[in-house]
Amino acid sequence: MGVWMSRPFEVVPNQKGGKNLLFFNYVYRKEASFKTSINWVCNQNVVSRCQARIVQKTVSGELKLGKHGHNHDPVKIPPDSECIAVFTMTMRGKEQLLYLGQPFVFEKLVVTPTAEPKKIWRCNQWWNQKCRARVYTIGNVITPLNRYHTHSDIVKRKRRVTKKKVAPVSFISAEDAIGSSGDSAGKVMDEEVAEYVVNIEDQKKIELPDY
């Protein structure tokens, strides 16, 4: 069995309104609460089948690690300078948030008990890749709710292709088509008749030679 130890840890809020335990950059979720202790399990126990556990004393806060270690890497905690919100605009003119290079789109507005507006943002790949990463901002300070993305690379929204406008096609009736073709045929016939008459007039002017 593990040994009780006093090590620094942090309890952070999650996207469901509960609490997670952050210990050495590993995230644990609450499994069960008892009168004198709380059992925490790795929040990757379903996705990665990680069996790491921690037992916490409710009074002293001492921790005891389970016999299994983690089978995955710890989360990357950004420095304080990267917790400052950077807002940009999407191609549609809507506000978006950049966090660690990844764009987040606005989801909803929540009012805190102190009457401060809190904005919830979700990864812009929440639909395409079913990503559940979310953060919230109060003012210009970012607090992550769920740090895990379903994609490893930073994905920005693709530029939309502008569709070319097709010129409208005009239609004419059959009567108009026949009428226009008949007029053109009549003009050609008139020109041929006029040329024939001119040729006859020229032939009349020819004088026969004397014998």
TrEMBL record:
Stored InterPro entries: Znf_FLYWCH
FLYWCH-type domain segment(s): 12-72, 87-151
GO molecular function list: zinc ion binding
UniProt keyword annotation of Zinc present: yes
Name the record gives this protein: Predicted protein
Pfam families: FLYWCH
Keywords assigned: Metal-binding, Zinc, Zinc-finger
Species of origin: Culex quinquefasciatus (Southern house mosquito)
Gene3D superfamilies to which the protein is assigned, alphabetical: 2.20.25.240
